[in-house]
């Protein structure tokens, strides 16, 4: 039951871009915060990874079409990142698989026989008393 859930979760995660590495997960989670288009400097500041490392991971997601970058029209030194519909669709699929696996596991566990309660440990006996 639980193992089936973990297997389903791993399958679902493989369909989400960037989830194969912590850097990619950091970017995807950062993009999913409810702010729409976000400045890259915020990503670099909030990540525990170096800026060059995050740039490499971000470039991979951009090249795959999951993230779009745009410059600020008023200040061309500032670049923004935004999740594309392709990334949002992949996350929706992941959410659906995750939910289905969770519901299936929950229903299976209701049918399972509860494990016997563990015996209480005996108190430690003192030596020489």
What's the number of extended β-strand segments? 3
- Percent of residues in helices comes to 55-70%
The coarse overall form would be extended
From the helix content, strand content and strand pairing, which structural class follows? mainly alpha
| CATH level-1 class | Mainly Alpha
Spatial sequence of strands, sheet with the most strands: 1-3-2
* CATH superfamily descriptor: Winged helix-like DNA-binding domain superfamily/Winged helix DNA-binding domain
Describe the structure.
The chain has helices spanning 2-14, 22-32, 40-46, 51-63, 85-111, and strands at 38-39, 67-71, 79-83. It is mainly α and 129 residues long. The chain is extended and about 70 Å long. The chain starts with a helix and ends in an 18-residue tail after the last helix. The chain has a single domain (2-107), classed as Arc Repressor Mutant, subunit A, CATH 1.10.10. Strands 1-3-2 form a three-stranded antiparallel β-sheet. Helix 1 (2-14) runs antiparallel to helix 5. Helix content is 55%, strand content 9%. The protein has five helices and three strands, in the order H-H-E-H-H-E-E-H. The mean pLDDT is 79.
Which features does this protein show?
three-stranded antiparallel β-sheet; 55% helix; mainly alpha; 5 helices; 129 residues
Summarize the structure.
With 129 residues, this protein is mainly alpha-helical. The chain is built from five helices and three strands, in the order H-H-E-H-H-E-E-H. It has a three-stranded antiparallel beta sheet with strand order 1-3-2.
């Amino acid at each position: 039951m639980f193992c089936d859930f973990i297997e389903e979760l791993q399958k679902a995660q493989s369909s989400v871009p960037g989830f194969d590495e912590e850097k990619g997960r950091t970017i995807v989670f950062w993009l999913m915060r409810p702010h729409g288009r976000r400045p890259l400097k915020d990503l670099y500041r909030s990540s525990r990874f170096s800026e060059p490392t995050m740039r490499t991971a971000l470039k991979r997601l951009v090249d795959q079409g999951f993230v779009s970058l745009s410059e600020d029209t008023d200040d061309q030194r500032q670049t923004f990142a935004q999740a594309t519909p392709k990334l949002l669709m992949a996350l929706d699929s992941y959410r659906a698989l995750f939910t289905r696996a969770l519901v299936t596991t929950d229903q299976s566990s209701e049918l399972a026989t509860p494990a016997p309660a563990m015996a209480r440990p005996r108190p430690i006996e003192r030596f020489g008393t």
